[in-house]
Design goal:
Family: Belongs to the binding-protein-dependent transport system permease family.
Keywords: Cell membrane, Membrane, Transmembrane, Transmembrane helix, Transport
CATH topology of the domain at 90-205 and 235-315: MetI-like fold
Radius of gyration: 24 Å
Protein name: ABC transporter permease
Structural class: mainly alpha
Shape: globular
Subcellular location: Cell membrane
Number of helices: 13
Largest sheet: none
CATH architecture of the domain at 90-205 and 235-315: Orthogonal Bundle
Membrane topology: Multi-pass membrane protein
């Protein structure tokens, strides 16, 4: 199987996942007590004529599948309807917040990959006291919830030392990165500890393999052995964990966004759920599911690039 066929199959499978997810997202919201009519009417009882007019205005008098496919067709063109609370297009509500959440997740991912892999390699290659210290640091990172880390960072580095702003996403690329530094650290520390443990275990396992011992017996430099024979083979579980971590960051950003008042997609989703703003909930959840699916596709492609044995031609 060649790359085009591999990609076509992956994209077809991902499209099927998105179709099922969109159906569930759209349908489950109509199973809550009262449905959208309870929110639209509020505390009013409404006359039959008023109820009929509201149902017609929001197309609630149409069959469910007709409404679903109409919503799906609009969503494919970037139209997620209008917010019942804000009276704005859902796409407009999400556009600015999507940039904030996307940059936050990318920033946190960079910290996780760099710090997690570095600590894991340090622990695996420097056994003894260094490994003990690294393991202790990883345990502290894993045991500390993001909201605790966020509060500590705000108190120490924002309010105490004044090195970083307390809240807000900033304006412009450089200013946004400056504002998102503390939130990204708060979001990433637990995942740094987890990835460091996975990296340490994977690298440690590869260091004990027979081909590594053979390379050492041939007098090859240790740096060359680690770079050519250890890191590549140890990277598969690291990539897997990184992919799962990024997907988790998308959902976990809700807490951090609330602490630092970033007003991203996570904060918008929480408010929409509390306010029963159905159109916003549907739009945000569909975007998050799409991001999760894309991350899984990227992980699949990385497998084939890292290990030729997992190439598209042999994976089928």
């Amino acid at each position: 199987m060649r790359w085009p066929i591999f990609l076509a199959r992956r994209l077809a499978a991902l499209a099927a996942v998105l179709l099922v997810a969109s159906f569930l997202v759209y349908g489950l919201l109509y199973t809550v007590p009262g449905g959208p009519m309870s929110f639209l009417l509020g505390n009013r009882s409404g006359t039959p004529e008023q109820i009929a007019a509201i149902r017609h205005q929001y197309h609630l008098d149409q069959p469910f599948l007709v409404r679903y496919f109409s919503w799906l067709g609009d969503a494919l063109h970037g139209d997620f309807g209008q917010s019942l609370v804000y009276r704005q297009d859902v796409s407009d509500l999400m556009s600015t917040r999507l940039t904030t959440t996307g940059l936050l997740v990318l920033y946190a991912t960079g910290i996780i990959v760099v710090a997690g892999v570095a600590l894991g390699l340090l622990g695996a290659l420097r056994r003894g006291p260094v490994d003990t210290v690294v393991s202790a640091v990883n345990s502290v990172f894993l045991a500390t919830p993001p909201f605790v880390v966020g509060v500590v960072l705000v108190v120490v580095f924002a309010l105490g030392l004044g090195w970083f702003p307390v809240f807000g996403p900033g304006t412009g690329f450089g200013d946004r990165l400056y504002h998102l530094t503390l939130p990204a650290i708060a979001l990433s520390l637990g995942s740094v500890g987890f990835l460091a443990r996975i990296t340490r275990a994977s690298v440690g396992e590869e260091l004990g393999r027979e081909h590594v011992e053979t390379a050492r017996s041939r007098g090859l430099p240790e740096s060359h052995i680690v770079r050519r024979h250890v890191l590549r083979n140890a990277s598969i579980p690291v990539v897997t964990v990184t992919g799962l971590t990024v997907a988790g960051l998308i959902a976990g950003s809700v807490v951090v966004e609330n602490i630092f008042a970033l007003d991203g997609l996570g904060s918008l989703l929480v408010r929409a759920i509390l306010q029963r703003d159905f159109a916003v909930v549907q739009g945000v959840v569909l975007v998050l599911v799409t991001a999760f699916v894309i991350v899984n596709l990227v992980v699949d492609l990385c497998y084939s690039l890292i290990d030729p044995r997992l190439s598209p031609g042999e994976a089928a």
